Known about the structure:
The chain is 22% helix and 22% strand.
Amino acid sequence: MFLSLIISVVPSGASAADWPMGYEEAKANGTPSPYGHSVQSIGTSLPVRSQSAYSSMDLVVSGDLIQRRYFDSEGKV
């Protein structure tokens, strides 16, 4: 039961051994998360919760990156 729970939350294309290492590396380098990334072009700020675990989100206005946020295992900043 416990093992199946771990496997069910690991993003596709990632193994349990390197997850969330890729997320931490992306966060340290300021690059998009390999486990889910989205772009928003409307508004002045990004959400702080209710996002996919270990994902990132960009706010892009007129082609310029305004803000990037990273979301933890609970989908919170």
